[in-house]
C-alpha cells in the first residue's frame, strides 16, 4: 500500500467540509496527512477551520493565507508543506471542499494509483444536461484545447479530485499560475515530464447548481487559455512582420513575382524569426539556452524552405495577373499551416525545459 497525503484547498467553506473531514477520518482510507489550506476565508468562515483544528487528530494540519491567493497558490503551498514534513508520502490526493467529491470516489482513485504509481490519476465526471451550463462550457473548451496542444483526450479538465505522484509534485511547486489555470497547466504539462494522465470515473455531484464554486468564467478562463493565447499572439506579430516584408519585397522587385518568391520568403522569414524567437523565448515558454537556439535555428531553416517552396507551388495553382495578391494569399495559407505544426514542435521539443532531467533523477533516488 502506497503512502498518501490528502490536500484540500478551501475558500469560505461551510459544514460540508467538516462532514467530508469526518468521513475521511472515520473511513478505511489510509493516509498519513490531511492538509487543509484556508485561502484567505472571511472571518465568518473561520469557525469551520477552528472546529477542524479542535478535532485533535494528529493527521490534520490547517494552513492559513492572510488573504485570498488563489486555488493554485493554495495547492502549491499545500504541496510544499507535505513534501517538507512528510517526504515519505508517494501520492498526494487533492479534493474540493464543497462536497462534490466522496470518500468512495477518492478510494477508487487510490486503487487506480496503486496500479499506476508514477501517473496522474484524475477522477472524471460524466456530463449530462443536468450539469450547470458554466461547468459544461468550461470543460468543453478546455478539453478541446488540451487535445489540440497535447493530443490527449481528457474528458474532465476541471476535476479537483486528483492523485499526483510525488515526483511530479516536485515540479508542480515551481509552476507559474496561482489560480484555476494551475490545475489546467498540470494536465497540459504532464506529458512534458513523462507523466501519463489516467482517468477514473467518479459520481457526478453538483450541489445547489455549483453555486459554491469560486471559478470566474471570464477572468479564470482567460488565465487558463493564456499560454496558447501568448503563443498565438507572438505568432500573429511575427506573421504581420513576415507578410509585410514579403509583400514589400515583392512590390520592389517589380513584375518578376514568381521568381522573387523564394528570395522574399528568405528575407522576410529571417527577420520575422528573430521577433518570433525573442517572444517565445522570453514570454511564452520562459526559458532556453544555447541548445534551444540551435534547435530553433534548425526549425527556422526547415520552415523557411517549406514556406518558400510551398508558397511558390500554391501560387502557381492560384489564378493571378502578374500582381502580388496570389503569392500573398498562398503564403498566408501555407504559413498558417506551418504555424500550427511549429507550435507543437516548439512546445514538445525546442522549449522543453531542463527540469525533465531533474525529474528523472528524482525517480532514481
UniProtKB/TrEMBL annotation:
Primary location class: membrane
Record-annotated membrane-spanning stretches: 228-254, 260-280, 292-310, 325-343
Keywords attached to this entry: Membrane, Transmembrane, Transmembrane helix
Residues annotated as domain GtrA/DPMS transmembrane: 230-351
GO cellular component: membrane
GO biological process terms held by the UniProt record: polysaccharide biosynthetic process; protein N-linked glycosylation
InterPro entries attached to this UniProt entry: Glyco_trans_2-like, GtrA_DPMS_TM, Nucleotide-diphossugar_trans
Subcellular location(s) of the protein: Membrane
Membrane-protein topology: Multi-pass membrane protein
PANTHER family: DOLICHOL-PHOSPHATE MANNOSYLTRANSFERASE, GLYCOSYL TRANSFERASE
Name the UniProt record assigns to this protein: Glycosyltransferase
Amino acid at each position: 500500500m502506497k503512502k498518501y497525503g490528502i490536500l484540500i484547498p478551501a475558500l469560505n467553506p461551510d459544514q460540508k467540509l467538516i462532514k467530508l473531514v469526518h468521513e475521511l477520518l472515520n473511513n478505511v482510507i489510509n493516509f498519513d496527512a490531511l492538509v487543509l489550506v484556508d485561502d484567505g476565508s472571511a472571518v465568518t468562515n473561520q469557525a469551520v477551520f477552528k472546529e477542524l483544528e479542535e478535532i485533535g487528530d494528529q493527521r490534520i494540519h490547517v494552513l492559513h493565507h492572510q488573504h485570498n491567493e488563489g486555488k493554485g497558490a493554495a495547492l502549491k503551498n499545500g504541496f510544499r508543506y507535505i513534501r517538507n514534513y512528510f517526504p515519505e508520502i508517494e501520492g498526494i490526493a487533492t479534493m474540493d471542499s464543497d462536497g462534490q467529491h466522496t470518500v468512495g470516489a477518492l478510494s477508487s482513485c487510490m486503487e487506480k494509483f496503486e496500479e499506476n504509481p508514477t501517473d496522474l490519476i484524475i477522477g472524471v465526471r460524466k456530463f449530462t444536461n443536468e450539469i450547470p451550463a458554466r461547468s459544461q462550457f468550461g470543460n468543453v473548451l478546455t478539453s478541446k484545447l488540451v487535445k489540440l496542444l497535447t493530443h490527449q483526450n481528457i474528458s474532465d479538465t476541471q476535476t479537483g479530485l486528483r492523485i499526483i505522484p510525488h515526483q511530479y509534485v516536485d515540479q508542480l511547486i515551481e509552476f507559474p499560475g496561482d489560480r484555476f489555470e494551475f490545475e489546467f497547466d498540470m494536465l497540459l504539462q504532464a506529458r512534458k515530464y513523462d507523466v501519463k494522465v489516467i482517468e477514473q470515473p467518479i459520481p457526478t455531484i453538483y450541489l445547489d447548481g455549483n453555486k459554491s464554486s469560486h471559478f470566474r468564467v471570464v477572468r479564470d478562463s482567460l488565465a487558463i487559455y493564456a499560454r496558447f493565447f501568448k503563443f498565438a499572439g507572438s505568432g500573429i506579430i511575427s506573421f504581420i512582420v513576415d507578410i509585410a516584408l514579403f509583400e514589400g519585397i515583392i512590390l520592389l522587385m517589380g513584375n518578376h513575382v514568381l521568381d522573387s518568391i523564394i528570395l522574399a520568403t528568405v528575407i522576410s522569414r529571417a527577420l520575422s524569426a528573430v521577433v518570433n524567437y525573442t517572444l517565445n523565448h522570453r514570454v511564452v515558454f520562459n526559458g532556453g539556452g544555447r541548445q534551444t537556439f540551435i534547435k530553433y535555428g534548425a526549425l527556422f531553416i526547415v520552415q523557411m524552405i517549406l514556406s518558400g517552396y510551398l508558397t511558390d507551388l500554391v501560387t502557381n495553382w492560384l489564378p493571378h495577373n502578374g500582381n502580388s495578391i496570389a503569392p500573398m494569399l498562398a503564403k498566408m495559407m501555407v504559413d498558417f499551416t506551418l504555424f500550427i505544426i511549429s507550435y507543437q514542435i516548439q512546445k514538445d521539443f525546442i522549449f522543453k525545459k531542463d527540469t525533465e532531467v531533474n525529474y528523472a533523477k528524482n525517480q532514481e533516488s
